[in-house]
Amino acid sequence: MRSALVDKALPVQRAACAVLTTLFPNTTTPPAQGFSPSIAVLSFSEIEALIAQVMKAFDGAEIDAATRLTFAHLMGHLLGLTQVPRTTTIHVKSPPQSNAPATDEASTAGAAKPQPEVISKPLAQPLEMMTILGTWMSKQTTTRKQRVGLLHAYSALFNLLGPSWVEANYRLILTHLAKDLINAPKVSTASRADKAWIRKAVGILLRDVIGERMLSEQGIISAVMDVVNGMIRPFLSAILFSASNPRAMSPGGGTSGTAGLARGQSPEKSPGVDTMMIILKELAGLLRQLGNAPPVVQELLGGGEVLITVACSTFGAGVRGSAVSIQCVLWSYILFPFDSL
User: Residue 131: how many CA atoms within 13 Å on its side-chain side?
Assistant: First the structure.
């Protein structure tokens, strides 16, 4: 069946994807009517081997949109299998025997032997699962066709895992897409056009696939907090802990409110320009989707001082313009709270 994934006939490839999806179902995608759940279990190495076959198929000369989407769904399904809890047996080591004098043979023979412990855990952690896609995306030999297929696989994976999983792991997804993926060697050394293309693709995943379809109102507020605390805060920390930057102090000589946001945090590597453009655009989308500025969001952004600090940074015009536009949205919610209802 694996060889059929790279068959010359596209209908055969799509049929092979459907067969593999049916043979190895998981709890999030129940088997088709009339089929019983399969007892076959794929190992991590087998999943990686199937994904490698899918990557070869993505680069086929005759591949069309329907076949690409079918392969993307299969890749998302295979990666989703790593998040299904599996029963594992762990052999617990017996405690070391003391140096005390040995007891009689009867009591020693009657001592209970350690029993193996049965636990349930997924095959891979979410970060390890996301790294599989990121590794393929960052390879120098990955072609444009394969990158398009990988982006479709991201979408299929998020839709398969569902809103609850996405909300619980939003910060991990945000860091992976907006920071790790955009800073991959294949992307960071690409031309300006390729960087703009990947920024647009990541923005579609964050906004159209996740933001507008999967996040609840509380999930949106949590996402805003993840964006600020996970991305903007390290950026401000890099600025405020820089001895050569006078913005670390307020005009009156005291510590500004923005400095309070980064208080107690050690300097971190500042996010790149592409990362800042992605997260600021997503922050604007989250605030517009929220429709107002709850007190927790206003406090988190310091009434706008955080965004003003970003706008006054030494980053490019795209970052400054995005920060100013978000500041205008925030002020409109603060000054005209009832107009946003």
Answer: 5
